[in-house]
Design a protein that fits this description.
Elements (H helix, E strand, L loop, with lengths): L27 H4 L1 E4 L5 E4 L11 E5 L10 E6 L15 E10 L7 E8 L18 E7 L10 E7 L4 E9 L4 E9 L3 E5 L2 E6 L8 E8 L8 E12 L1
Antiparallel strand pairs: 1-4, 2-3, 3-14, 4-13, 5-10, 5-14, 6-7, 6-13, 7-8, 8-9, 10-11, 11-12
Amino acid sequence: MIDVEGYYPYFDNYYGALDHFNRENINLMNIYRVYTTDSYAEAKVHTDQDRYRMHALFLGRTSSNGGMYPLRVASVGAMQYYVSPAALIDVTAILFECSFTQLNNLQRGEKLSIGLLSNTPTSHTGNDDAFSSNAMIALRYDGGDDYYNAKSNYEIIYSNGNNSIVVDSNVPRDSNEHRFRIIWSSNRIEAYIDGVRRLDVNHNINRALLPAFSVRNARSSVALDVRLVIDYWHISYI
C-alpha cells in the first residue's frame, strides 16, 4: 500500500483504510487514549476540512483562546493499534507512516512527539522527550524550556526503555507539511522524513508500541500558541 519512496498511499479496500483518519464515525474518546491536563490543552477533531482530510487530529491550543498554558500537555495514543514485535515472526517489517503540520511558528518551550511509543505521553518536561522509561521509535522536536533554548531541527529518537539513540534529522522545524515513516524489522530500525532516511540502526525493541502523538508546553510561566495537525496516519505489515 505504500511504495518504497514513501509517497502518499492509495487505499483500494476497506481494510486498507481502517486505521486512516478519513473515515466515518470516529470517536476520539472511545478509540484513543486522550490525555490533556485541562481545557487549555486540547485534543479534538480538526475542523478545517478545506485543507485537511475529514477527521484530521488537532492537538494544542491557539493564543486567541488564551494559549496552551504553562506546563501543559495534549496527547493521543491509539490504544487499539498496539503492534507487537511478535508480528515480526510472520512479516518482514512493521510500517508506520503519518503526515503532520505544525501550524504555529517556532516557540521556546514547545515539545512534540510523533511515532510508535510504549505509552501515551503524559509529561511536559525534560529534554529526553519526558518519558525516560518509554520505549519508542519517534520523531520529536525539542523546543527547550525556561532554562535552555529551542533546537533548530527535528530529531529522531530510538529507545528500548533503557538505552536511547538521538539523531539530528537536519530537517528544520517549520510550518510545512511533513511525512514521517518508520520501518521496524526484527534486527533493524529505519526512520524517514519526507522520503529521506534519517535513522538506520541495527537494534530492536522487545515491547509492544502504539501510535502516539503529543505536544507539550515546558515553560513554567508562558502560554504558547501550539497547534499540531495529524492529517493522516497508518500502520501496515510488509
